Amino acid sequence: MAVFPGSFDPVTFGHLDVIARGRELFEELVVAVGRNPGKDTLFTAVERVGMIQGLIDAMVKAKPELGAVRVEAFDGLTVDFARQAGAIALLRGIRNLSDLQNEVQQAVTNREVAGLETAFVVAGQSFAYTSSSLIKQLTAMGHDMEPLKKMVPPVVVRALAKKKSQRHPVLAHLMTVRDGASEA
Question: Residues 7-54: pLDDT tens digits?
């Protein structure tokens, strides 16, 4: 069993690609929805788990013969969650060389501290530069949600549009930074 940790704020086609390939590698995969204390989240943990669970249900229905997947929210250290879940490995996606450098450093630390190995899958070329941060920036600053349809599933596009119409503070902050209003 492996754990695929992340904030998934929001979940992208790249994340779903890693999950789909993780199902081929492991009999069971836990998508662990965590909180990065260094980032403000656009979606609550409950919203993120709900979106991911709906997308995974469709994925599992399409290919039930592959590994089982469950989605769980957690707080705290990823390695603590993974140990409690009984994981033998962490699953991580690599988009580019910057990811590789950061992920290898984290993998060595996780192996030394918690005895957990890390399995890497390389993202497909179409996902190489997609990130949740980029998607939030495009949502905050863009006038058209159409470009997001290439990066995130329709349920996520709708949820982003709703957050934008509600003037969510995370999106408002991104607009403020863009306009230079928060600079002294």
Answer: 999 999 999 999 999 999 999 999 999 998 888 899 999 999 999 999
Specify the CATH superfamily of domain 2-127: HUPs (3.40.50.620)
The pTM score is: 0.91
For the chain, domain boundaries: 2-127, 132-179
Cβ 66 vs Cβ 24: under 8 Å: yes
Phi first, then psi: what are they for 142, rounded to 5°?
-85, 155
> Could you please report the per-residue DSSP string of 36-97?
-TTS--SS-HHHHHHHHHHHHHHHHHH-TTS-EEEEEE--S-HHHHHHHHT-SEEEEEE-SH
Backbone angles phi, psi at 31, to 5 degrees: -85, 110
**Main-chain dihedrals φ then ψ at residue 77, nearest 5 degrees:** -80, 140
